[in-house]
Amino acid sequence: MSLLERVRAARRFDPARYLRFCAGGAELGWVRPDHAERLAAWPQLFDIDGASIRLSARLDTPQRRSAALAAVLRQLADQDYLPGWRDELYAVTRAYGEPPLFRLERAAARMFGVTTYAVHVNGVVGAGGACRMWIARRSRAKPIDPGMLDNLVGGGLAAGLTVAQTLVKEGWEEAGILPQLMSRAVACGQLVLLREVPEGVQAQTIFVHDLELPEDVLPVNQDGEVAEFRLLPVAEVMRLLGEAADFALDASLVMLSFMARHGYLPQDDPASLELARLSG
Length: 280
Hints:
Blueprint lengths: L2 H6 L10 E5 L2 E6 L1 H7 L6 E3 L3 E4 L6 H17 L10 E4 L9 E4 L3 H4 L2 E11 L6 E7 L10 E2 L2 E4 L6 H13 L3 H4 L3 E12 L2 E13 L13 E8 H10 L5 H13 L8 H7 L4
Parallel strand pairs: 1-4, 7-12
Antiparallel strand pairs: 1-2, 3-4, 5-6, 7-8, 7-10, 8-9, 8-13, 11-12
């Protein structure tokens, strides 16, 4: 996959292939027809036509919506239709920072194509021609992108957590980085993805961060979700991004944003120009 193909994959989405998912009077996501057909088994909860799938207006509070969806999703998980159950909730909102319309089991976010939020961190050592970047390899037990290459740190914003809190949480769990050091991560903008994935639709805003690490800090995974870490020269990371197929797409875009911002990827490169279109 070339760099340009990698960036373009972030917006590979055809809305004509999906039903709009609505709840609380808002358009919130995208549902594949086969998923909608499965959800039709609960007609008391979902109103479905050729263009949309709507959560029943009778579910008129966040608590009622959350409870009804939780019951359905638990049954789908028990039927092996919804893999990767996390026991972690995402807040589903009209826009970032607004009160949630409901909370949704993380494993179902792509099934409903709702917008989720995540933090990713480029961990770097040194600068200029001597700059190196920490690369992680995801555990093969991960439900999403198992065994693929990843950022030093990355994770979704669970309901009730801020970006800063998620940085500290994920920094420790994934790489054993102490809060004092993790708090030095520099916010570098957002990347917005909307793409078709095997589970449904990934609609995600990524809060991008860079963290310069001292030479003597070695990441150590704490939660079993990372198989290994490698510290590679930036030139080698660039080569892998252009040649290797085993990079998680979201992580590779976060790395490319670092390359573009620091001059390792020329501003007039087609991939750099395309990447700028993902920035919110």
